[in-house]
Amino acid sequence: MGFWLPLLLFFASGYGILALESTNVSIIVKGSVSVAETNEHFVCATIDWWPPEKCNYNQCPWGQSSVLNLDINHPFLAAAIQAFNTLRIRVGGSLQDQVVYGVKGLEHPCLPFEKTVGSLFGFSKGCLSMDRWDEINSFFNRTGAIVTFGINALYGRHHVKNHLWGGAWDSSNARDFIEYTISKGYKVDSWEFGNELSGRGIGARVEAEQYGRDLIHFRAILDELYEKSHTQHLLLAPGGFFDEQWYSKLLQVSGSGIVNAMTHHIYNLGPGTDPHLAKKILDPQYLNRIADIYKNVQSTIKNHGPWALAWVGEAGGVPNNGGRLVSNTFIDSFWYLDQLGMASTYNTKAYCRQTLIGGHYGLLDRDTFIPNPDYYSALLWHRLMGKKVLSVDFNGHPHLRAYTHCRKQKEGISLLLINLSNNTEYNVAIKNDINANLNTGVHNDKGHSFTDGLKWAVSWIGTTSTAVQTREEYHLTAENGNLQSKTMLLNGTPLQLTEGGGIPPLTPAHVPVASPLIVAPLSIVFVTLPNFEAEACV
């Protein structure tokens, strides 16, 4: 029975799974044109600045995971990044606007953050020494990371009232730091200006007009410093929560050619103390709410700054450290992968997960560096889902989420299917819109026999060859049916590091293309169809 035996046990032991129902679903893939496109390095993860003393809800989950104290020589950490071949890492977070850079000319000792009553976020300013920056860049170079670095955008400003900060940005410390970085040959792909200073701000805010003028100044600095360098230098902003009026004004003031990408943050699940977090993640209507943010970001850029791209610069679902026994367990992959799918359909070019390590939402465990379930979800997306996004058409099944892309660097397509239902398995027929009108249409029959299911699956068409074909399937489930398990099963096998600490092979099940494609309750399935005809993918 292969990996189906663990799935049957999963149904029997279940996480609130009721009597099993089976439903036929037809998914029509529109492969003639792509509807959106991501970046080659769409999957991204962050490294934050929080020290061990960062606590919320009587929990202090950061430990030694910040830019300043992370054990960058841990072999599991390097292996986790190298498995992506190239993983974008965004260095930034709430404390980045209190970071000073320990370059020549700094008039005070280079000291780490300290708890300070009355200071922004309850911490003093902290310093990044150039020795530590050298070590970090050596690590980035060894692992092939693509680096986005968040610059302190409060430097030189003064507190006006409430959260408002005024005055022009003092660029002197940042300029010296970037000049040092270039002189050492360190490859920073993009510089992000500020963190959560937009709109009402988080802790602090800056008016859009002043921010726009500062961005023009920052762009001039970058262009000057990189004039003799052949490396690319993107400018990102503002790294905050989307506020339509503020973002529009920023684009109008800064003007064309200044900002390469508008970055915004996603924390749509509410606080980590919410006892209904798991329920929210499995509620399709709740998951759909955030789509309005993506739509509005897209329209704002189109109307006021068509030269800029959209990025999610930081997203952890649950703010303030993530949700304990939620963000670091299997159930979070329903939210995370749905976010990757949804963001990509709105032309989002990069999606930076908070965090690579640190807090409850780390892709890696803070203490052991062992991957949490979302790490493997991110890796599968990165390896299977190409840049071009295809439209899919199916109705009447809100608990089944479907996203389709061209296959990554190979012919065919890749699908992501997410089943949020705890009592319905979906027997999926995948069709090509070129030929879909030749079929009998979309069915929604329950209680069908195995023979009916086989006939249903055989209705799949739209391949480039009449030869015997197979598809690749990656079924993701929770160990022992426990959605809050930290162990993810791939085709029934636990995903665990190898004896040498390496990332395990993510081996698919090779299935005859005419056999049933079954998406079990509370499971996630990646499917690749190498011979599917899609003109957009040629």
TrEMBL record:
Membrane among keywords: yes
Molecular-function GO term, any one: beta-glucuronidase activity
Species classification: Eukaryota, Viridiplantae, Streptophyta, Embryophyta, Tracheophyta
Keyword presence, Membrane: yes
Protein name: Heparanase-like protein 1 isoform X1
Alphabetized InterPro entries for the sequence: GH, Glyco_hydro_79
UniProt KW keywords: Glycoprotein, Hydrolase, Lysosome, Membrane, Secreted, Signal
Highest taxon above the source species: Eukaryota
Signal peptide positions on this chain: 1-19
Record organism: Dioscorea cayennensis subsp. rotundata
Subcellular location: Lysosome membrane; Secreted
Gene: LOC120249892
Job of this protein: Endoglycosidase which is a cell surface and extracellular matrix-degrading enzyme. Cleaves heparan sulfate proteoglycans (HSPGs) into heparan sulfate side chains and core proteoglycans.
Cellular compartments per GO CC: extracellular region; lysosomal membrane; plant-type cell wall
Protein family: Belongs to the glycosyl hydrolase 79 family.
One Pfam family of this chain: Glyco_hydro_79n
Lipid bilayer topology: Peripheral membrane protein
